[in-house]
Amino acid sequence: MTYLTSLTSTRVLRAALGAVLAAGLAACSAPGPNHPPGEPWDPYEKRNRSVHEFNKNLDRSVIRPVSRGYSAFMPDDIETAVSRFSANLSIPQAVVNNILQGNMRGATEDTYRFLVNTTFGLGGFFDPATELNMPAATEADFGETLAVWGVREGAYVETPIFGPSTERAYAGRWVDLFTNPLRYVLESPESYIPPSASVSATLTQRGRYGDSIDGVLYDSADSYAQARSLYLQNRRFKLGGSEGDAYVDPYEDPYGATYEDPYDDPYAE
Q1: What are the pLDDT digits (tens) for 15-59?
Q2: Of 79, 114, 143, 191, which has the fewest CB atoms closer than 10 Å, so is most exposed?
Q3: DSSP classification of residue 251
Q4: Does the structure show a pLDDT above 50 at 103?
Q5: What is the 3-state secondary structure (H, E, C) of 15-43?
Q6: Secretion signal: which residues (predicted)?
Q7: Would 23 be classed as within a structural domain?
Q8: Residue 106: its pLDDT value, please?
Q9: ω before 189 within 30° of 0 (cis)?
Q10: Residue 98 structural domain
């Protein structure tokens, strides 16, 4: 009975989310029949390049110097612990998305990892789950959920502050603001802990791996095209390569929010 109730609730939630997003997602553009397969679909390139320049200027004047100062001031062990804590807080959101995708194995594995790190890892500041050889976190997001539901990728877009995305991923990002159960459990001022930890983790990664990120943003002949190519290749690879070549580049998503790999998602998706 509990399983049936859960299944029914999942279907109702999926239907509700689908209805809310239907109008916006219907507007996701698609390339014409003559568009070369595998090539970026970027009908908004002129606007995107303007946003890209804004993001670079913001990084140059604010994010890069602040992250360098933060990493220089904060001990490495504390930075690492806070990054782990931030990653642990994002797991409940991944559990929800795995359930919506019908990936119950991923949801179960993420739940176990969250419980182990929250209890034995002091809230996630330590990572005993990895030491116990438990599966890595799935990092499922609602953009991925939409892909599983058959929503097309849409055009490439660069968004202020958050950087590279697609129309589908951008819509998913907005929904992800509401899919983490911790959002409804924590009260003020505790509710400010997850976003604060995420900002700290972002500054840590930007400070630690600044040279690699700078290589993409400031040393490329065309940093916009470079960022676009790397984001699309890696996003498609994460989704199983169904919409592009299964290619992993060491500079995955140079605007992502949190990540563990040194070149994985330095700003946010």
Answers
A1: 555 545 554 555 567 777 777 877 889 999 999 999 999 999 999
A2: 191
A3: T
A4: yes
A5: HHHHHHHHHHHHCCCCCCCCCCCCCCCCC
A6: 1-22
A7: no
A8: 97
A9: yes
A10: 41-239
